[in-house]
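Pilot study result, target chain (583 residues):
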Amino acid sequence: MGEGEALLRATEALLAELTPDGHWAGELSRSALSTATAVVALARFGREADGGLIRGGLRWLAENQNADGGWGDTVRSGSNISTTALAWAAFGAARADADFAAVIARAKAWLERARGAMALPAAIGARYGKDRTFSVPILMTLALAGRIGWEHVPPLPFELAALPHQFFGALRLPVVSYALPALIAIGQTIHHHRPTRNPLTHLLRERTRARTLRVLASTQPENGGFLEATPLTSFVTMSLAAMGLDEHRVTQRGAEFLRAAVRADGSWPIDTNLATWVTTLAIEALAAQPGALSPEQRLRLRAWLLGQQFRGEHPYTHAAPGGWAWTNLPGGVPDADDTAGALLALLALGTVDGETRTAGVAGVRWLLDLQNRDGGIPTFCRGWGALPFDRSAPDLTAHALRAWSAWRPQLDKRTAARTRRAIERAVRFLAQTQRADGSWLPLWFGNEHAPYDENPLYGTAKVVGALRELRDRGIELPAAMTRAGERWLAGAQCADGGWSGVRGGPASVEETALAVAALARTAEVAAVASGTRWLVARVASGGWREPSPIGFYFAKLWYYERLYPQIFTVGALGKITGDPLGA
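Predicted structure:
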């Protein structure tokens, strides 16, 4: 099979994934962690009608236990202490230990080995360090299931959520910005089961319970799913149910979301879908082939994307109008990566009319307002830098740079001047965050085989590709920075021509395609040629459709997306081959 034939086959397969609504929806991996938390939440909610869902979830967990006795976040992931502990808790919360005795015995043995000399709560805390976004919810779930005592669950200062949201960035909260519902619900539950002994703190928490519950309710979307995320919604639902607030509307709507989110096999994914994200990625991947999308498809995609832009202040993060979220569903929250992706996709679809220009300029300004003092771009909220997933990140910054530079010809003079200054600051941020070996680390993608779960391949590919686009648009860049990134990418190639997120690790379709796309039209001709042959061979064998768990959701929670390898392959081969469909 040649490159052109491989591109044609991959493109036709990707186009076949378009939904009847005219966009891409994809499919997120099934998650043992999500399934475990949903089971605990429904078990605590205590409705007899949910018994079938609970039993189905437990059966799925039992059938997908790893051979070593633990569970990973996806069915393709190695066992980890967080997911294994939560699965163990799910059987306890459902009072099903006797029915699954062999499963429980293997899980307990795995946890004994994993925690070593530490107690289980200490081992879980050590996994996350100062960030309590996930460690405290896990410990609370274990306590609710009777697996540990409440004395092992650290308190959370839910009373701070009673303050105006403008203060949140300065409070240095122990959870990340997008976990505010967990702070409130879990903090209240811990206080309910183990009240603080400090009389002043106790009084403050008692007096702010009603106020913070109202804040919690104000952040819940109409379908009940916080961020469309099963784990977060489950933690909130089980917390309120454990305080006897079964009839509270947040609890009721959270349970309704969980019932609607279950898959046919009894499992739950980490999130409902990444429809906006995969749609923008697919549009960009097809951009090298102007003939791939019909005029009608382009019009439908443009209208759909314009319809996903937020036109008012978001009730969850209080983000200003103008951004895009990862999904078209109610739980989405505007963020940097998806806003940049939507801006680039709108341009890739062709002619910019008045409506598109208005939306694009608003999106550019939204990104400008998000830029941190260090010049980098965070995910959701400017200035929330206390914890890792709130910091500025090279991959997000690179994506914003691409969007800003592409939209410059469409901007008014004042916005264009702001954008020029923002680009200069962002480039300096990338120079400062480049590692000594020439690579960059991303925020939302990792590699399970790498030390500290890092994925410099993803980060470096995204930055190198962005820098090449900026250079092509006449923006001056430090040549040494760009070449160091390109050399690192070429040097990270595996012997078989593929790429992995870690040197010596297994090559994946996603990582190989990202590297090939980033190095296209650079001096690394040999690396691109061998990487292209690797991809073509995978298309010929059918292996190009096999996704790998390279996605980070939050707090070291892994996922894979079924469309990632397809989208990235089309994008890489399109850059190399051209436009067979438009010929």
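One observation from the pilot: The first strand starts at residue 30 and ends at 31. A full batch analysis is planned for the follow-on phase.
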